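User: Structure please.
Assistant: Input sequence and predicted structure:
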Amino acid sequence: MNTLLLTADTTATASEWAFGSGNIYNDILIVALIVVMIALLASALVVNKAMKSIINLTMPQLATEQQVKKAKKINWQAIAAKLLSLRPIEEEKDLEIEHEYDGIKELDNPVPAWFNALFYSTITFGVVYLLVYHVFGWGPNQDQEYQREMALAEKAKQEFLAQSANLIDESTIEIDATGTLAASGKAIYMANCAVCHGNAGEGGIGPNLTDEYWLHGGDIKDVFAVVKYGVPEKGMVPWEQTLTPGQIAEVSNYIITLAGTNPPNPKDPQGEKVAPKANVETTDASAEQVTAENEV
């Protein structure tokens, strides 16, 4: 029984593969259409050939004109032969050079026209290049191109750095060891922060920024967050709408450098005592420098 079922399935599968659509009437119709199309094409070819024969017999003048038109078609082989300076083998006797050696004769084949055109065009290009770049200076030379590329690269670098600076937030801000950000942040501090914290950070309306006491943390990340979001309940406005993240990073770095500067008339300490990381890093660096000098 299983064998019969397997045979039936195999037959059905083969039938579907043979007929394609599974519907025998549709398959027969498609085959018939293909046959009809082939027959029509063959008939058209036969009629075309018969019409040509009729024209040749009844209208020889028209047939002659058609042959002339065919003869006037572009002879690509002749053009290629002319460009490559090819000569038919029958004309080799006209190209033979008088001398021969051991029965071997040499042909005087001219240089192909395309090669001469390419050769003279390179000479022309060289002369024009020399005049444009080295005689009249109309085009930039290599040094000028290098300077231009360097200027473009520097501009792209500054744009990238500016964009990168604006990607800083309170979780990624770090102390700038080079002091570049702090130097730029001084002007921002004097323009926006000095009115409340004093020109030297000694404090006024706002707390003292030079001692070891901080109300909201003395880490660079804490300072960045306070400047960015402010402390509205204590009168500290948020600066995120006024300053860019890069500018907040600069002024935060400058505030960190104020720790331990001991300005005159400092405000009383507020908050909790926190050892600023900037001072700790500076002390460690100084200790390492002294140790290195002693070793020397």
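The two ends are 101 Å apart (CA to CA).
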